[in-house]
């Protein structure tokens, strides 16, 4: 990275299998990393905290986890909450009580099905204004999307969506708005049609709608959702179109439905993307384009502000894997222009 960035490294004796990042209100970065150990059959998770080059370390780890990305968030008190998969189960961990505690939220192992395809199980976690936890998960092997929450004081599980159709990938994301409405996006089906779905729950149940049908967007590679200050959802959406061109679109929802506000990229394959909103709801999109991490923002326009780096305000920092080392980068000062 250029001189506008501070880069720190944390040693990992293996191959990183997945990671997620959250930044608290004090600007401290927290990220969870799942790594394959020197023994290829064993993976472990660690939670790192970054408050500057001289204040970087980990205070939580767990071994024997599944080789899938974790999900992490931070509440208004600065407490860390994360979910990951272990022993055919979804595990929730938090330091909200002062010390780390864990619990198994749901297990998918049964006597007649002792294991599942773990790489088809993904989670996304969010926290509302009352510090209640909301977890979205997709179990692609069973064709289902579920939702876990302790908003009532007890953990409850419900299925938002089930299908026998092949859905083509465990792509999900969750965001909680300022009124505690829960917004989700995932790749699924309604009826006989498959595509990108959006759902919202404001306390009276889930409503699902198509954002993009796979008939005109045949292959979804990634999706991410954020909610602006007016409680309106926005998405970043990577896919292969009918002309076999890889695209990354920025989508907004109006009174008449979803619209492609801008096409961010039409070059190489997009393996993942993440969307967040900065001050004045300026969108920042981080994504993997071929082998390179990139980001875009529409301070001018998304396509005019495409960068090979990490954004400064909204994403705040990015984690990359170089060989067996996990690198952390954050912009310490804004870039003009």
Structure description:
- With 337 residues, this protein is an all-beta fold.
- It is built from no helices and 27 strands.
- Strands 2-3-4-5 form a four-stranded antiparallel beta sheet, with no helix packed on it. It has a four-stranded antiparallel beta sheet with strand order 6-7-8-9, with no helix packed on it. A four-stranded antiparallel beta sheet has the order 10-11-12-13, with no helix packed on it.
- A hairpin with a 2-residue loop joins strand 23 and strand 24.
- The model is unreliable at 1-12 and 307-337 (pLDDT under 50).
Question: What is the topological layout?
Answer:
Layout lengths: L4 E7 L3 E9 L5 E8 L6 E8 L5 E8 L7 E4 L5 E7 L2 E6 L6 E7 L13 E7 L5 E7 L4 E6 L6 E7 L9 E5 L5 E9 L2 E9 L4 E8 L5 E9 L5 E8 L5 E9 L2 E9 L4 E8 L5 E7 L2 E6 L8 E2 L9 E6 L2 E7 L6
Antiparallel strand pairs: 1-27, 2-3, 3-4, 4-5, 6-7, 7-8, 8-9, 10-11, 11-12, 12-13, 14-15, 15-16, 16-17, 18-19, 19-20, 20-21, 22-23, 23-24, 24-25, 26-27
**Most strands sheet:** 4 strands, antiparallel
Radius of gyration: 19 Å
What is the approximate shape? globular
Structural class, judged by helices and strands?
mainly beta
Order of helices and strands: EEEEEEEEEEEEEEEEEEEEEEEEEEE
Uncertain stretches of 5 or more adjacent residues: 1-12, 307-337
In round numbers, the mean pLDDT is 78
